[in-house]
Amino acid sequence: MGASLIPSTTIFKVLFLVLNSLWFLPELANGSGITRHYKFNIELQNVTRLCHTKSIVSVNGQFPGPPIIAREGDRVVVKVVNHVQNNVTIHWHGVRQLRSGWADGPAYVTQCPIQTGQTYVYNFTITGQRGTLFWHAHISWLRSTLYGPIIIFPKKNVPYPFAKPYKEVPIIFGEWWNTDPEAVITQALQNGGGPNVSDAYTINGLPGPLYNCSAQDTFKLKVKPGKTYLLRLINAALNDELFFSIANHTLTVVDVDAIYVKPFLTDTILITPGQTTNLLLKAKPHFPNATFLMAARPYATGSGTFDNSTVAGILHYDHHPNPLPLPPHLKIFHSSNQHSSSK
What we know:
Blueprint: H1 8-29, E1 35-49, E2 52-59, E3 68-71, E4 75-82, E5 90-93, E6 119-125, E7 131-137, E8 147-153, E9 167-176, H2 181-191, E10 200-203, E11 220-223, E12 228-235, E13 241-246, E14 251-256, E15 259-266, E16 269-271, E17 276-282, E18 292-299, E19 311-317
């Protein structure tokens, strides 16, 4: 009737342009974000814990590793250079890899490992998330020493949905082996049994006063009376769920795995491997005549072996003497009722 059919080549050209415009929409929406650059040098570092010195695989010689700090909408570019004999990848645990799956990090899944002397650049955008996540190695058991926090602030000029805290403090639970963790998992894979348990749990890389030879290797949190602190909890332990509590203090859960939740009060948190939880800690209004232990211990119901020990740090009120700290009440390892879970 006088109308001509549109050539198929023209249709494909239009479709191509539409798809390309859709591809860049998130980048346009996040135009207020900036690009943050980091460099991770994978290198050996001598570290002493439990009166035992050994060489561990680290990022930039730090244990735990350095934080990634960004705002929602920011682009993060991390250049990883491998200076050790182990193959390495880095996984950004919990980060939504939208059209950037090659930056996710699992070895042999989204990338080949970074070999000795090689470099790999991770490039991704933080989209729709704010709170706490963490990064760790994603090959064999290198994540036992290769891990660190990812701190995601809201977009600029966007407040928290709760009162702004006086200070923010990352608290990372981990594990320490006096032996080489790579040898531990290799032996387990060879004999088919469960791997040997760690020698200690750690808070920010420190075992604390309840372990042998570790009184000086204790995480201490100094607070001011009446102030509110945002504790960014990360469970970087390999396989263990952990109870966490602070003696004589109540905690308010406000965020889990970089998603805001309806705030609720609790005196004990259960945090699973790979999970993150943000808590508000309101310091007492007056100087108490005490310091307080913050402690974590495992939750387990199976018949397998696990490290049934307790890691502790110290909550200390500023400008106050240091009496013996009061211990918190923690659930026994198989307790499954009346505990508060952040799951």
